Amino acid sequence: MANERLQKVMAEAGVASRRKSETLITSGHVTVNGKKITTLGTKVEDEDRIEVNGIPLQREKLVYLLFYKPRGVISSVSDEKHRKTVMSYFPDVRQRIYPVGRLDYDTSGILLMTNDGKLANQLTHPKYHFEKTYVAKVEGIPTNDQLEKLRHGIRIDRKLTSPAKTKVLSSDLEKKSAIIELTIHEGRNHQVKKMFEKIGHPVTKLKREKYGFLTLDGLQSGEWRALKATEITRLKKR
Asked: Which SUPFAM superfamilies does this chain map to (predicted)?
């Protein structure tokens, strides 16, 4: 949170919305290191002491977790249908974490969990071209011409996808199915399933194997680990 705008830090700490935090600042309710602040845009460092109406601000430590999401779990903080969410796997994490992007209910694989909103936005914004690699089991065996369509971009939901990378990992003539690796940097709703559906090979099972340079190595379904400092730095340098 180093060198962040005061109202943003207040909002992220749960004091109030950013707009309400701005009102608290301009009306003289906030001090930084004992000095009353009324100017919007004031920036603060991690070590600064912030008080709102004399009450010290509790600033959350930023956490970055790599989670192996199982199938049958919702990638959300809560679910109106009361289905199991990813949050049930983090009962001892005190910070208010949330998933970076989403994985479908019936899709397993790598998912980042954090409370760093700035990084989450950077990783999910299309302009950053952050690659995600999926392994899909599909009906039938796609031809190279069909996969070439995915490599050049294919129109789904009236919009052309960006070029994808594809690789046939295995095929089963007897069962009439194939395992295909697909790498994309977009994150549209049900995108991978729709891409394979478009070329006539529906997905029957899907797993996200890689998130940029991060992999599931060493993790079993339902397990998670904290990111290493070097991994966090590498993510932020994008």
From this structure: Alpha-L RNA-binding motif, Pseudouridine synthase
